Amino acid sequence: MIVLELLLFCLLFTGMVRIDVLGGAVNGLYFYPKPVQERAISLGLMSRETMQRKRKCFMLPFMIVMLASLLLIIGCLNGVSDFRTAYLQALLFLEVMNRYDGIVIDKLWVGHSRFWVLPGTEDLPFVQTWAQVIKKRGILTLVWIIGAAVVAGLVVLLF
User: Fold this and answer.
1) pTM of the complete model
2) What is the Cα 125 distance to its own chain's centre?
3) How far apart are CA 133 and CA 131, in angstroms?
4) Which of 21, 101, 108, 159 is the S-S candidate for 75 at Cβ 3.0 to 4.6 Å?
5) Distances (CA, A) of 123 to 20, 22, 39, 111
6) What is the pLDDT of residues 127-159, one digit of tens each?
């Protein structure tokens, strides 16, 4: 059951990113490295203000939906009510999402799809190297150790 829940959680993650870029990859300009952002802005693909607004309009609902789904999975579907079990499940989901984002989203989807190439920025690297992915995912591993405690606390409080 938990494997199916993990799969659905990752599909929700992918679906939200895909919806965000329905009008084109430029709508997710805030996902790109700074040099790509700067070039896209200088080419007039998007203004800095619009990029920041789009980032806020995506990230807030994204975090709310992902947190709510995690709370519902752990608290409702799995019926967890103790902190330890909630913490371990939250950590599992957050770490799987962390690796999924780095490997499936960043390296496979972004790295192997022409969709993500912005016109006029073809000469700029926009896919993270494996070293960058490992470093970022390592840092996020530490963040999710704390984040899982917050989720577990909310599960115990709400369920």
Assistant:
1) 0.93
2) 20
3) 5
4) 159
5) 24, 24, 11, 14
6) 999 999 999 999 999 999 999 999 999 999 999
